[in-house]
Every structure is written in structure tokens, then in C-alpha cells.
């Protein structure tokens, strides 16, 4: 009889354990994944977005007056590639990367004007405007490519080479 009581006690303990600690579990609720947000571009990171960010961060800066080519090259993360904006334009024409007279440049494209022997260059914002030095005496933004006269066109948005 003791054996039978022991077996009953053991069976009772096992049943209690299963009741307290069930063998099946209810899955935990699954959290929704956070939306993927593209990281902001770093200024001068070699991308069109980075070039725009570089100019946005320098708005009002007067240290690039007369140095438009240096400004656009710095915005793309390089310097010293072209001696002037007009040389950059002529290089783009020679390389087949110039879009003469086209007033719809994509974001980050170089936009050129023939306003002096050195020319002028800025970076297109992709919405018909541009960033450049020489905007009211400093780095700034204009909504129209006609801000300067003698617009030449644009060249491909890429690290100057």
C-alpha cells in the first residue's frame, strides 16, 4: 500500500507541476518593426545629397567669394581638380557629360554660367534652383537658374574628375 500511495503522490505532484508549468506556451506578441529611415547624408561625402548638405551648412559663409569652383569641389569632398568653373565646364563638354542649355539639372549636378573669364558654377537642388557662392555676397540658395546671366548648362552629378 505504501508503494501505491507513493505512486499516487508522485502522480499528483506531476499533475500539479503541469498545471503550474504548462508544456505549451502562448507566443509573445511580436512587436512591429520600426520604419526604416534613410540616414541623412554627410556633408562632402561624395554624393549629391552630401554636396547639398555641405552648401546648406555653409549658407551665409563669405569665405568662398570668388572661389565658386573650390566650393563645389569641396561640397563633393575633393579640391583642386579644376582651376576654374569655365575649365570645369569645358572639361565636361570634352568628356560628353555636359547638357548645354538644359534648364532641368538633377539634384547635385554642376550648373554653369559664363559671367567672367573664369565662369561661375553652383550645385543644382533638383527643383530648378541651385546653391552657390556669390549669392548676395555669400554662399546661398536661389530658386531660379536665371539668377546669373549667360547660363551654359549642367554636367553630371559626380565627384569632379
From TrEMBL:
Source domain of life: Bacteria
Annotated keywords: Signal
Signal peptide (UniProt feature, chain positions): 1-33
Protein's name in the database: CHAP domain-containing protein
Amino acid at each position: 500500500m505504501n508503494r501505491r500511495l507513493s505512486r499516487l503522490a508522485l502522480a499528483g505532484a506531476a499533475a500539479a507541476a503541469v498545471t503550474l508549468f504548462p508544456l505549451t506556451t502562448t507566443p509573445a506578441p511580436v512587436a512591429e518593426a520600426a520604419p526604416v529611415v534613410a540616414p541623412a547624408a554627410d556633408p562632402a561625402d561624395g554624393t549629391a545629397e552630401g554636396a547639398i548638405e555641405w552648401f546648406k551648412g555653409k549658407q551665409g559663409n563669405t569665405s568662398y567669394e570668388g572661389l565658386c569652383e573650390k566650393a563645389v569641389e569641396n561640397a563633393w569632398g575633393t579640391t583642386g581638380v579644376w582651376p576654374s568653373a569655365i575649365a570645369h565646364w569645358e572639361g565636361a563638354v570634352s568628356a560628353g557629360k555636359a547638357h548645354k542649355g538644359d534648364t532641368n539639372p538633377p539634384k547635385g549636378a554642376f550648373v554653369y554660367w559664363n559671367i567672367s573669364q573664369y565662369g561661375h558654377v553652383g550645385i543644382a537642388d533638383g527643383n530648378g534652383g541651385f546653391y552657390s557662392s556669390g549669392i548676395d555676397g555669400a554662399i546661398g540658395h536661389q530658386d531660379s537658374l536665371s539668377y546669373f546671366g549667360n547660363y551654359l548648362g549642367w554636367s553630371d552629378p559626380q565627384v569632379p574628375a
